[in-house]
Amino acid sequence: MDATLWLAPLAGIALAAACGLRAFLPLLVVGLAARAGLITLHGGARWMAGDLALVALGVATVLEILGDKVPVVDHLLDAVGTIVRPMAAWVGSYAVLSAWPTPWGQLAAVGLGSVAVGVHLLKAKLRIGSTAVTAGAANPAISTAEDGIALGTAALAVLAPLAIAFILLLVAVWIARRRPPALPSERSDRPTPLSSRP
Question: Burial level of 3, CB count in 10 A (0-12/13-18/19+)?
Fold first, then answer.
């Protein structure tokens, strides 16, 4: 089996997650990687490596990153991002699913858009909490951390998608170990047998 058939979805998951934080930065990374010959884009997404697309994505990335550091503007970006970020995730995921034939690449990309929705909602919830607790003072620092995470995740997606599988495995193990303790009603209330008493 062609390795790209199962590595591409891993890259798509990572790009979708990165798009949940920043709509345009992951797409810029994908376009630059394709321009450098590091990845092959799906036929319908090769425009992302063109001059005009890279300039537009670069400008959009800078505006989004700077706007996310400004109080009130960051919440407006989150509101707009509810629509824009899943769409960006669809475009980015579709672009890297170059080995998947039509319509499977498109359908998989739509499904991966839900990853961006989940990450975006968690981001927005964290930002609202930060605004309430710190009056927005901590938001620029959180935003900068999100920039780094989005960039790192997008870079992993295009350069080392196999690492995404390892990260997902670690997350799954961490979630499994954080299972809530048993409720009192679920514990055994049976009396201890006399033979086991001291």
Answer: exposed
68: closest CA among 126, 132, 13?
126
Query: What is the average pLDDT across 95-118?
Result: 75
| CA dist list (Å): 162 to 11, 12, 79, 103, 123 | 8, 12, 33, 24, 25
DSSP, res 195: G
Amino acid in position 83: I
**Range scoring the smallest mean pLDDT among 113-117, 123-127, 165-169:** 165-169
Could you give the 3-state DSSP secondary structure of residue 69? coil
The Cα 183–Cα 169 span in angstroms is 28
Model confidence pLDDT, tens digit, residues 133-182: 887 788 888 889 999 999 998 998 888 766 776 776 777 777 777 766 55
CB-side neighbour CA atoms (13 Å) of 138 = 11
Q: CA nearest 102: which of 22, 44, 168? A: 44
